[in-house]
């Protein structure tokens, strides 16, 4: 088993085995309050962030940021898909400047990202949630900000923050990469949790 598959399997086992499914469909899910959806979305995204960042930090420690880019390229989507299935939701990351074209925003996500950029915090000082209800689903988007200097190894300025080997790997794996040039605190994108109404 390759290193990234092993790390992905271990991370998924730890996250899924140590937590109950976040989205438990009620008899009438449309009647659930917005605050419940927001709380569930925060729980799911915290699990996803912990699993993904844990894998990336281990890879950085073992082989530097260039190695972490390789693992992220192979493991990020399977990881979020597995956590979404475990939670009974749809889960993805999106950004107005995506690295992976798969993460390009749809019209709903573009609207959310624009609002999250100008109103980053809620009344309690937490990253603001953006919520939208339709007859099919409740969509919750939570901002992703670059909070750690380590993030700049792959998302910072190519001339100063991103090492040449990492830059070469990014260019190879993501030829349309737009996820560079950020500074600490910048809005990188958002987690999008969709709760189907059934």
Overview of the molecule:
This protein has 198 residues and is α+β, with helices and mostly antiparallel strands. It has one domain (3-19, 33-196). Helix content is 47%, strand content 14%. The chain contains six helices and four strands. The chain has helices spanning 3-17, 34-63, 65-87, 107-118, 152-155, 164-173; strands at 90-94, 130-133, 137-145, 187-196. Strands 1-4-3-2 form a four-stranded antiparallel β-sheet, with helices on both faces. Helix 1 (3-17) packs antiparallel against helix 2 and helix 1 packs parallel to helix 3 (65-87). The model is unreliable at 3-27 (pLDDT under 50).
Topology:
Blueprint: H1 3-17, H2 34-63, H3 65-87, E1 90-94, H4 107-118, E2 130-133, E3 137-145, H5 152-155, H6 164-173, E4 187-196
Antiparallel strand pairs: 1-4, 2-3, 3-4
